[in-house]
């Protein structure tokens, strides 16, 4: 059973799982990814939802379709995804975090002290 985040489309959540697999190295560059049908069965979702997640990664150029063989992690995918995720974090998440840090009156020393706890 999956605990889906109701505020985010399922295909985005599947894409995030695939991204995490590539960034963490649990699937290396040049290796095959699980088939659309396998993921759809494992997650109890429509295969079209999985296809949409895969297509978004194909559009980024981090996975490639090999006709008759499936989906494979492209060369350079890990570094490309890291760069993409960093950029997305800095654009989408960081401004909100900075705003909250300022609102709470925290400074770098407070943050660093709590990082090591």
Automatic annotation (TrEMBL):
Keyword flag DNA-binding: yes
Domain HTH gntR-type, chain residue ranges per copy: 8-76
Keyword Transcription regulation: yes
Superkingdom in the source lineage: Bacteria
GO molecular function: DNA binding; DNA-binding transcription factor activity
One Pfam family linked to the record: GntR
Key words, A-Z: DNA-binding, Transcription, Transcription regulation
Gene3D superfamilies from the UniProt entry: 6.10.250.1220, Winged helix-like DNA-binding domain superfamily/Winged helix DNA-binding domain
Protein name: Putative HTH-type transcriptional regulator YhcF
Lineage, highest ranks first: Bacteria, Pseudomonadati, Pseudomonadota, Alphaproteobacteria, Hyphomicrobiales
């Amino acid at each position: 059973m999956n605990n889906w985040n109701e505020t985010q489309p399922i295909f985005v959540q599947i894409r995030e799982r695939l991204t995490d697999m590539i960034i963490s190295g649990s699937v290396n560059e040049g290796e095959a990814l699980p088939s659309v049908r396998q993921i759809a069965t494992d997650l109890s979702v429509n295969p079209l939802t999985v296809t949409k997640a895969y297509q978004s990664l194909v559009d980024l150029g981090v996975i490639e379709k090999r006709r008759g063989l499936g989906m494979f992690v492209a060369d350079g995918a890990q570094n490309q995804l890291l760069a993409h995720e960093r950029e997305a974090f800095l654009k989408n998440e960081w401004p909100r975090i900075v705003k909250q840090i300022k609102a709470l009156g925290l400074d770098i020393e407070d943050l660093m002290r709590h990082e090591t706890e």
